[in-house]
Amino acid sequence: MGRAGLRAFAAACLLALAACGDTPGPVPQRTGPAALQVLIGSSGAAETKAVTDAAAAWAKASGNSVTVIPAQDLDQQLGQAFAGSSPPDVFYVDAARFADFASVGALEPYADRLPAADTFYGTLRQAFTYQGRFYCAPKDFATLALQINEDLWAQAGLTAADVPRDWAQLTAVAGRIAARGITPLVLGDTVERIGALLVQAGGWLISPNGRQATADSPQNAAALRYLQELLRAGLARYPGDVDTGWAGEAFGRGLAAMTIEGNWIRGALAGDYPDVRYTVHELPAGPAGKGTLSFTTCWGISARSPYQQQAIDFVTAMTAVDQQLAFASAYGVMPSVTTARDRYLQAYPADRAFLDGAAYAQGPVNAPGMETVMSDFDTQLSGLAVRDPQAILRRLQKNMTAALRD
Amino acid sequence: MTRDAAGRPARRGGFRTVVGVFLGYAVLVFFALMFLYPFVIQTANAFKTEADAAAHPLSPVPDPFTTAAFAKIFDSTAFPLWIGNSILVTVLITVGRVFLDSLAGYALARLSFRGRGAVTAMIVAVMAVPGVVLLIPKFLVLNQLGIYNTYSALVLPLLVDAAGVFIMRQFFLSVPPSLEEAARMDGAGVFRTYWSIILPMARPALITLTILSFQASWNEFPHTVVAVQSPQLFTLPRGIANLVSGSLGAGTQYPLKLGAALLATIPVAIIFVIFQRYFVRGAAEGASKE
Amino acid sequence: MTDRTRRGRSGIRGNEAVAGWLFVAPAVLILGLFLVLPIGMALWVSVSGWNGQGSPFAPGVPFVGAQNYTSLFLDEGLTRENFMISIRNNLYYVAVAVPAQTVLALALALVVNQRFLKGTSFFRTAFYFPSVTSSVAISVVFLFLFANSGAVNALLAMVGISGPAWFADPRGLLHLVLDGLGLVDLANPPAALTGGGPFGLSWWEWLAGPSVAMSTIIMLVVWTTSGTFMLIFLAALQDVPVQVEEASLIDGANAWQRLRHVTLPMLKPALFLVITLGLIGTWQVFDQIYVMSQGKPANTTLTPAYLSYRTAFRDFEYGTGAAISFVLFLIIVTMTLLQRWIMRDRDEVRPRRRWWPPRRRAS
Predict the structure, then answer these.
(1) Closest approach of chain C CAs to the CA of B289, in angstroms?
(2) What is the rounded CA–CA span in Å between residue B194 and residue B178?
(3) Do residue C39 and residue B56 have CB atoms under 8 angstroms apart?
């Protein structure tokens, strides 16, 4: 059956159906009071409540109405919503999936029209820029930092002066901790943690414009070789190796003296392991200096929303300094605008290491079709101890290049 | 070879029989434990504290005994809503299937009309279509029809099942036609004959179909994944699946998850115990026609 | 009089035609709308480049021919690799689960059918019960049973074995066996095997066997399906005429000979039925994967059914996802046709006596 035949067949199939697809082209915009649908991928009850309350307050003040829908599985729900006729007007977009949405035209590139567009951290702007356009406003962010278990640290005879500042010091203190029979470092076995080492070595996986794969660089290889040494010497372990689901659990249970996790570890430890005493420090610098990863979500606005102006007003309110500080206190994230920095630090001095990371953080790989490529890379990384780093990176390079070509 | 009075071969040696009986029961009890002990573990651990469940997963006795998990199920999850949805959807689908399947089955078995052969062939062909390959297609249709993410999407596509139509057709083929012929002679219409003469006779088949439909729709999972996305429309299996694939750092919460799964299992278990023989009959019939 | 009768008859026949269509109309409509029509729509999607935005039937959605299919079989890349891994996983899954559930079901049926044992109906019920419960609920139970600190590892610890981290262990069982025998070194697989292989997957990967994680799902499925298959065997066993068995007793055959030469040949149709049903069912595993592993660890529990779902709804590659569905569809339909062909003689006799209460050892 040729193209025409198939189309005719599909059309015949559709005769019985009323809705025959949407007409392409810009969606006519409506003015006046809007009924906004907001789909969020909530981290928990606290976030759902905070966003719902903030949305209700905005709706009341502006005369619009807002329905906040917490998604159980944001990726899937968004995918199914876009395939349908009426996607939500506003929704969370994770930086790691952002390019997938932007590349198919699902997102309205509105962010430069925001009054406070210039106040977002540069690294976050970069994370939501696709083919030169800044699409959507970062909602908040988190970075990776080094957590140290104070009790195990003291047990190994270490003091505050021993906190590692670079790779050499990290190896040295890890050796001293291991000598006491304690696992020095537990580290998640995915690109979302190990990627920080690549940045510290001066490498990264993709060129800044998001067009070229740069996976098989000597810098990346150096970073993986360094981690491989740590793993082989027992100085670093993956969470699965110590029988835990993620590094925070291992750290909370006192199975390791150090871990590398993001801001979310605060809430997790406070909830599940309230007794563990720990401090947070910037990640040790590599050969190329400091490096960390940032994790962020933006307020996406649907290109097919008939209420784009109202949606932009809503996002403006949600990203205002006061509102972001309120979110920060409700569910432990960091504001996405530099103008909130000082007030945030006043309120949470212990988070300085996380916040300072914003200056040199690297966002996720910002290109469409990377989901399967990155999960394959994760699979390879989980076997880093016994695999050749060069081969892992060559494989990644090949897969990324193929995905970028499509 | 010796034989007893009835002419059957005599038992060869009491000892061997005793050993045989012993071995037979040993095998039965071993497998009964294999098949039922997981449910014991599930029930027991639902009443344990999280620490106890982690430390003594095998123990059938909760120590201390707590209903905290169940309190949490009803407090902090949308469990009551899921139950309500499950009941609504199950009742609608079961009623629909029993009525529509038997209606179609009767027509295919007894009424002569043009195209009967074609419809029968379609039913048989459709039975061969495996459900999981229809996930994407079903989503597309529900979306095109504009009923995606509604109760209609949960119920409508499951309202008829080809296997049920086929089972009913086979049943009506096996019923002697004399009774309905008598009714027709008395001038009863086709539907009245079906409703007041045929259906009452079909009771055993209808009960089997009811049981099969109830069990299938109560447990249905993949269809709900592509039919709805809003938490207000979750049925029990979908809700529990989401509960299980919880986010990082949410903790294992096994008593909670096991308790939720237990509550979802109880209705089927009760029906199973009461209508066992229909299940057994349906299994052989359903399985061979799947 | 004759005239009236004739008119009455034709009236009834006319009624019948209308009633017949009215009676089947709801079934035809629903099955057509939600089973037949979707297949046509998916066929179009599988040869289109629809990106999941708006309707797949809107003008402007490109036709890409067989591209989605070639990316599964011919084009080098992750799509093919993941698809082939899912095929490999499912092949091993079938190869282990089908024989296991068939043998277990047959053994249970033979024991339950022993006349000299009392109370077998209780055991029959017990073995069958897991089959009627929700796959999602059962998956939750198995998640707990095989957790790191779960019941199975506790049981293993009692006999001094330190159990694996079941759901986190991607090592293939075949690899482990070969490694255990000293034939290969897991950390340094032989270059002859890692060098290349069919469909972009090295021989070493093809020969991995089911992973430790997959083996828990296999155990779950064997555990839930054996009861149903046991019932099929039981039904067949009860059709074995007593005279045949007694005749063999008189011949002085021992239990094994009786099983081998008398019972099993008579069970042949049931055996075929169970095996083909197993072959069909094992290609459809979805719920357990969705709840328990989502394809993890290291894609070793990925199956085509789950992969098609994931590809479409998570990666928004609807075309590729639909193409995977169709390949899976072909596999399963082939199995079904095989079953229909094998069972074709039996279907004729079957419906007649099924509905009456089962008679033990009909004579």
Answers:
(1) 9
(2) 13
(3) no
Task: Scan for tokens 């394809």, then name that residue.
Answer: C295
CA A288 vs. chain centroid, Å, equals 23
Which candidate, A71, C291, C295, C217, places its Cα nearest to that of B244? Answer: C291
Please determine, for residue C358, whether its predicted confidence score (pLDDT) is greater than 60: no
Q: Residue C60 and residue A24: Cβ atoms within 8 Å? A: yes
Which chains sit next to C, with 3 or more Cβ pairs under 8 A?
A, B
Instruction: Supply the mean pLDDT for chain A.
Output: 88
A248 CB neighbours in chain B (<8 A) are 248-249
| Total-model pTM | 0.84
What CA–CA distance (Å, rounded) separates A312 from A301? 8
Which ranges in chain B are annotated with CATH 1.10.3720.10? 77-289
What confidence score (pLDDT) does residue C249 get? 62
Does ipTM surpass 0.90 in this model? Answer: no
Distance CA C85, CA A7 (A): 33
Print pLDDT tens along chain B (290 aa). 444 444 444 444 456 678 878 888 998 999 999 999 999 999 999 999 888 888 888 889 998 899 988 998 888 778 999 999 999 999 999 999 999 999 999 999 988 888 899 999 999 888 878 888 888 889 989 988 889 889 999 999 999 999 899 989 988 888 888 877 777 777 778 888 888 888 888 888 899 899 989 999 999 999 998 898 877 899 999 999 888 765 433 456 788 889 999 999 999 999 998 888 777 766 655 544 43
pLDDT digits (tens, 9 = 90+) for B25-61: 998 999 999 999 999 999 999 999 888 888 888 889 9
Q: Which of B136, B186, B236 is the best mutation test for C, with the most CBs of C within 10 A?
A: B136
Confidence of residue C313 (pLDDT cuts 50, 70, 90): confident
Please tell me which chains touch B, using 3 or more CB pairs under 8 Å as the contact test.
Answer: A, C
Q: Which residue in A70, A81, A246 is closest to B248 by CB distance? A: A246
Say how far apart CA A262 and CA A276 lie, in whole Å. Answer: 17
Beta carbons within 10 angstroms of residue A391's beta carbon? 11
Q: What is the mean pLDDT of chain C?
A: 83
The whole-angstrom distance between C229's CA and the closest CA on chain A is: 36
- Shortest distance between the Cα of A168 and any Cα of chain C, in A, equals 28
Residue B270 CB burial class (10 angstroms; 0-12, 13-18, ≥19): exposed
What's the token pair of residue B40? 């014991």
DSSP state letter for C183:
S
**Does residue C252 have a pLDDT over 80?**
no
Element (H, E) at A144: strand A137-149
DSSP string covering A153-213: HHHTT--GGG---BHHHHHHHHHHHHHTT-EEEE--SSHHHHHHHHHHTT--SB-TTS-SB
H helix or E strand, kind and range, residue A39 = strand A35-40
Q: Identify the CATH assignment for C78-172+209-354 out of 1.10.10.10, 3.90.1750.10, 1.20.120.450, 1.10.3720.10.
A: 1.10.3720.10
Full set of structural domains in chain A with CATH: 35-142+295-362 (3.40.190.10), 143-293+367-405 (3.40.190.10)
Chain B positions in Cβ-Cβ contact with residue C31 (cut-off 8 Å): 122-123, 126, 160, 162
Per-residue pLDDT tens over the stretch C69-127 = 998 998 888 889 899 999 999 999 999 999 999 999 999 999 998 877 888 888 988 99
| A133 DSSP β-pair partners | A130
Q: Give me the pLDDT at residue C165, please.
A: 79
Task: Quick: pLDDT tens for A316-347.
Answer: 999 999 999 999 988 888 999 999 999 999 99
Say yes or no for a CB contact (<8 Å) between C44 and A80.
Answer: no
Which CATH superfamily groups domain B77-289?
Answer: MetI-like (1.10.3720.10)
